[in-house]
Amino acid sequence: SIVDIATADNYLQVVAHSEREKTFRDAYNIVRKSPVILISWKNNLFLTIEFITANVENLLGYTSEEVINMQNSYLDYVDEATKTSVIAVFESLKRGTTSKTVNLEHAIKTKSGAIKWVDCRVFSKLDKEGNVTQFQGILLDITERVESEKKIQELNELRHTSLKVLSHQMRTPLTVANFGIQTLLTKEEAGEKKELDLSISKS
Predict the structure, then answer these.
(1) Nearest residue to 79 (alpha-carbon basis) of 87, 71, 69, 70
(2) 199 by DSSP, 3-state: which?
(3) Max CA-CA distance within the chain?
(4) 98-102 long-range CB contacts below 8 Å, 24 or more apart?
């Protein structure tokens, strides 16, 4: 009957909805246990954080509830050294002058005041007219990699400086020796000239 069909249809919709919710919960739990942080921002002047997964606490030291309830600008967490580049990327996304997906690496301030580095991948969400309504993305903690790269760079710079100093030290004795030889030759030539002058004056 029509009633039975409607009841069956409602039942199937409830089951499908439950399955979707279960799938979402399972996916969310997987993300919570991973280093990947899901995040969304409002397209406003402050880039207010609308949503962020619970594992943000491993990165910032704040719980996701604290981050969302504080209604802070995302820029409040970005370190001053990289803030200009972050603002430039989001402004480009707002204007549509860059691609809809952007990767950027920047420094971020934690609750304890420590500085960490993240790989931030941002996606623009558009309405039917093509206007940006929201930004969505992922954050990945890359602090260990950045610090390792800095140490390697510092070691390379130290090696380069050491080689320059060593090269200079190796050249210096040769320079001194060459100067000494030139001085002796000059003195010998002067002595020979003096003897020649005396000999001519006596003749």
Answers:
(1) 87
(2) helix
(3) 149
(4) 100/124, 100/126
Residue 125 β-bridge partners: 134
Task: Report d(CA 59, CA 78) in Å as an integer.
Answer: 13
Residue with tokens 């990947």: 36
CA distance 163 to 176: 20
Residue 49 bridge partners (DSSP) = 41
What distance in Å separates the CA atoms of residue 154 and residue 23, rounded to the nearest whole number?
Answer: 47
Between 201 and 79, the higher pLDDT residue: 79
Task: State the Cα–Cα distance between residues 203 and 200, nearest whole angstrom.
Answer: 5
* 3-state secondary structure (DSSP) of residue 67: helix
**If residue 59 lies in a helix (H) or strand (E), which one and from where to where?**
helix 56-60
DSSP 90-112: HHHHHHT-S-SEEEEEEEEE-TT
Chain segment 83-138, per-residue pLDDT in tens: 999 999 998 888 876 557 888 999 999 999 999 999 999 988 888 888 888 899 99
Question: Tokens 């820029």 correspond to what residue?
Answer: 75
The pLDDT value given to residue 101: 82
Residue whose entry in the numeric block shows the structure tokens 């050249």 = 171
Structure confidence at residue 196 as a pLDDT band (50, 70, 90): very low
Short-list 141, 142, 133, 177, CA closest to 44: 133
